[in-house]
Amino acid sequence: MTTPVLTISGTGSYLPETRLDVTDAAERYEGEADRILSTGYRTVCAEDTLYPADMALIAAQRSLSAAGVKPEDLQLLLVTAIHRHGHKRLWSPASWLQSRLGCPQALPLTINQGCNAQMLALDVASRFLAGGSGGSALVVAADQFASSGFDRFIADYGIVYGDAAAAAVLTSGLSRPGWRVLRTRTVSDPGLEGLHRDNAPGPEYPELLDAEHDVRSAKRRFLSENGTDRLQRSTRAAVNEIGRALLPDGDDPRLRRVVYPNLGLRLLEENYFPEFPGGEAKSLWDFGRTVGHLGSGDQIAGLDHLAGEEFAAGDRVLLLGAGAGFTWTGMLLEHD
Fold first, then answer.
1. Cβ neighbours of residue 12 under 8 Å, at least 6 residues apart?
2. What is the 3-state composition of the chain as percent helix, strand, coil, each rounded to the nearest 5?
3. Stretch 280-301: mean pLDDT, rounded?
4. Helix, strand or coil for residue 96?
């Protein structure tokens, strides 16, 4: 049986024009300025008008247009986010997007699996399409922190969050222009799920909302109980495993870029850059430091950003995601 060709045939993103200056913002946080500035970000995207679904629709339409795929040809529609959507709790963003795009035949799924969710969704979509007779899947990530109690500057360690949406169309069947998927590898360490969990579940009261957005407290508790280097050891091991699986011969002269999560510079230098050839030089840190950590959308927003660069047939790009749970996903792409 012939293995079907899987291609990211189109990408699209929505990056707000408004950018918050991180240096200016740091001055407003007494006792936190040095910590914020040490992340290395210059600016982060901020969207005060559009909510995640609105941004997702724009990114989705752009990706479908770039791919030359009609909504009625979609078999699967996956929407990922790490934060609130701005509507009722039981509302389905994937079904809303399905309605707005006009693809009732597509299987809609809304996924919450941390910052690696879009990469995991691409992995799942690849397996879904590989088992069929061709077709396309749309995978969209969208997050907006501006209109919530989540403080993008101090809710987490080593990270400043930005608002954005990013979409990719994954196509199976005949080879077509775009980024051909060569290999994918996901690594999971569920022993780290406690990094984002309280000691015990609690009731939902308005006065407890700030505590729900406090990522730091859960991380402090977990690392104090399990060792301050627990996350770093697992991350380095997982990224190393992905590197060996996707680049078995080590440095690949065809590898032009590695699109890492848009984490703060110190986290990238300690956990990610050392594990791949080229380190920071092949990264998109110059882009990431201007937009912030875009929830689950860093990798596809980065790939869409690379549309402005020239690539020859055979050039390769590696996408690498990481997120709560904990999971890491790598995907090696080759330009047609």
1. 58, 59, 60, 61, 62, 63, 64, 65, 66, 166, 167, 304
2. 40, 25, 40
3. 98
4. helix
